[in-house]
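Q: Please design a sequence for this.
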């Protein structure tokens, strides 16, 4: 007997959009696709009349910073942040370290246990931030993660030799290294030329060339060390092209990630939004933003993650006086699907199948959890998001958790996450979360 029948939907497949539905039982997909291939179940517990809404696999955000006891204030933890994820149609997150290191097998297991008790969504973990490569790589992989994060910039800067050694060890063990790409020497020099502390000078402190140089060098390091490379949060179209050189050489797998903020905003928006656009890497020119959309369209960019970093509004306000004060980082997990559906699909920049690839299938492959996640194949986890067309103005008040602010405040969007299903259960409706903390599970990455 079926548990859920979603009917009358526009189901997004690899190649197109088909009028049809989805049948779910025991938490897994029974069938999904055009009406002709999805038999109407006899007596389902729940019938959802999707009424033309678009249905996608639940989104997977491969880049979040959601839990750090030593850093985040009260109210910001894996419970409130994964609730925000599920409200926005993100049913799996891959959580990265922030300030507290996760560089031992014990630390991976400890974080997995802590987060399991709080999780509204299934999750994976990334180890990091690796500065000293003398770590137990295989032990960390046995503990459940094959991804290691390292930096070419402060505050977690690793020197060249350390990055090379880490890549060699991780490559040998079958893992992937994720690199934050901005060259610290160029950031230092740029900073030394800046006097002011108003918001727009922040952009000048993190030049485009710092990103291009670091992406290029990370590519050569990965080839040298024979290690799969994942470049996180590329902020420019030129950065995507730089990374693409190494993809086409194909010695080792290279995946390129960007984030919604780099598609939504450019330097010029800082005059209006000030510290609410403080993010690393910083925003680039309008030209770079347009080139980045091109890279998202043509497949140069493989996937989109958010680099979700939550802070409260009051903490951010301080940046109007002194932009160097607040942490860099933007909340984004709850707005990713709506942004890309509105500004990407509805504005004609990408298709629904391309969106599905960018936030569902490719992230799942990157995290080693495809097709269990990120597909609508029969027998896989019934994680599904329904999106309806609706014109509205974005406001923080309409969200489950954005710390009282969102960089997208005041934008006019046209797609809204309607209903979210995870493991066959409705877990959110109209950004109202109906799941409980602790229902999400740790997805130990298969070796
Ligand atoms: Zn990050």
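A: Design:
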């Amino acid at each position: 007997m079926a548990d859920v029948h979603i009917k009358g939907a526009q189901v997004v497949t690899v190649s197109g959009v088909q009028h049809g539905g989805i049948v779910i039982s025991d938490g897994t997909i029974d069938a999904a696709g055009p009406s002709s291939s999805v038999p109407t179940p006899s007596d389902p517990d729940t019938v959802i009349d999707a009424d033309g809404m678009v249905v996608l696999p639940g989104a997977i955000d491969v880049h979040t910073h959601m839990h750090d006891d030593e850093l985040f204030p009260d109210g910001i933890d894996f419970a409130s942040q994964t609730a925000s994820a599920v409200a926005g149609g993100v049913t799996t997150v891959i959580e990265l370290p922030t300030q507290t290191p996760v560089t031992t097998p014990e630390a991976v297991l400890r974080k997995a246990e802590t987060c399991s008790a709080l999780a509204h969504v299934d999750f994976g973990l990334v180890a990091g931030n690796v500065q000293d490569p003398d770590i137990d790589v295989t032990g960390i992989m046995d503990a459940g993660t094959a991804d290691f994060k390292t930096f070419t910039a402060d505050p977690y800067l690793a020197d060249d030799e350390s990055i090379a050694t880490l890549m060699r060890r991780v490559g040998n063990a079958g893992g992937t290294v994720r690199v934050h790409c901005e060259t610290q020497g160029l950031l230092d020099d740029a900073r030394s030329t800046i006097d002011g502390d108003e918001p727009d000078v922040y952009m000048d402190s993190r030049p485009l060339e710092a990103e291009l140089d670091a992406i290029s060098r990370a590519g050569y390091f990965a080839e040298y060390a024979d290690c799969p490379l994942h470049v996180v949060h590329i902020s420019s179209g030129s950065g995507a092209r730089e990374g693409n050189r190494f993809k086409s050489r194909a010695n080792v797998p290279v995946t390129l990630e960007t984030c919604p903020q780099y598609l939504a905003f450019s330097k010029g928006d800082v005059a209006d939004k000030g510290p609410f656009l403080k993010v690393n890497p910083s925003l680039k020119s309008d030209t770079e933003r347009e080139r980045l959309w091109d890279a998202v369209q043509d497949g140069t960019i493989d996937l989109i993650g958010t680099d979700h970093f939550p802070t409260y509004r009051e903490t951010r306000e301080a940046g109007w006086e002194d932009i160097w004060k607040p942490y860099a980082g933007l909340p984004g997990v709850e707005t990713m699907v709506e942004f890309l559906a509105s500004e990407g699909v509805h504005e004609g920049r990408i298709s629904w199948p391309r969106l599905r690839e960018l936030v569902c299938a490719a992230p799942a492959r990157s995290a080693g959890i495809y097709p269990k996640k990120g597909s609508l194949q029969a027998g896989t986890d019934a994680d599904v998001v329904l999106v309806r067309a609706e014109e509205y103005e974005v406001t923080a008040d309409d969200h489950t958790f954005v710390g009282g602010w969102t960089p997208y405040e005041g934008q006019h969007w046209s797609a809204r996450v309607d209903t979210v299903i995870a493991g066959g259960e409705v877990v959110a409706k109209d950004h109202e979360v109906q799941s409980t903390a602790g229902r999400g599970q740790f997805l130990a990455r298969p070796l």
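Q: Thanks. Anything notable?
A: The mean pLDDT is 96. The chain has two domains: 4-55+382-433, 59-366.
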